[in-house]
Amino acid sequence: MNDGVTIDFKIHFTRGQCGTRVMHAGECARPAEMPKGRVPRISKLMALAIRFEELVRSGEVADFADIAELGHVTRARVSQIVNLLNLAPDIQEAILFLPRVAGERETVSEREVRTIAAEADWGKQRETWRALIGSIEGGRTR
């Protein structure tokens, strides 16, 4: 017998373990839209330097020479990357959160940042960093 009651709601299916279909109530979640562009190379290297330090401190690897061997790169290259840790903490943070790169050209080059990291005085590093960022925002060309 039909009493005239209708229940209307949306469902969607996903794949569960071993390929089984799982039913979920509600609309299918839309994947978040990926931001345009790519993460700057120097941001990736900064994150890598932090990870390298973490691996050595935790004892997962003995030293940076082991990282070089495991990564099939020279010790000098690992040193270049790890030396980014000599930057002032606020500069490290700024590098990690640089805006995405839309074209082929990087806004901040690794060479420029390595030059800043070579300076031991954080105050001088900050001055040089501000000058570099100011020249980029001012429309510097390479």
Shape: elongated
β-strand number: 2
For the termini, the CA-CA separation is 79 Å
- H/E series, N to C? EEHHHHHH
- Overall SS class: mainly alpha
The value of Rg in angstroms is: 24 Å
Number of helices: 6
Main sheet record: 2 strands, antiparallel
User: Average pLDDT, to the nearest integer?
Assistant: 89
Helix content: 40-55%
Segments where pLDDT lies below 50 for 5+ residues?
Answer: none
What would your notes on this structure say?
The protein has 142 residues and is mainly α. It has a domain at 41-137. Helix content is 47%, strand content 7%. It contains 6 helices and 2 strands. The protein has helices at residues 41-58, 64-71, 75-82, 89-96, 110-118, 122-137, and strands spanning 11-15, 21-25. It has a two-stranded antiparallel ribbon with strand order 1-2. Strand 1 and strand 2 form a beta hairpin. The N and C termini lie far apart (79 Å).
Give keywords.
142 residues; mainly alpha; two-stranded antiparallel ribbon; 6 helices; elongated
Can you lay out the helices and strands and say which pair or pack?
Elements: E1 11-15, E2 21-25, H1 41-58, H2 64-71, H3 75-82, H4 89-96, H5 110-118, H6 122-137
Antiparallel strand pairs: 1-2
Summarize the model shown:
With 142 residues, this protein is mainly alpha-helical. The chain has 6 helices and 2 strands. A hairpin with a 5-residue loop joins strand 1 and strand 2 (21-25).
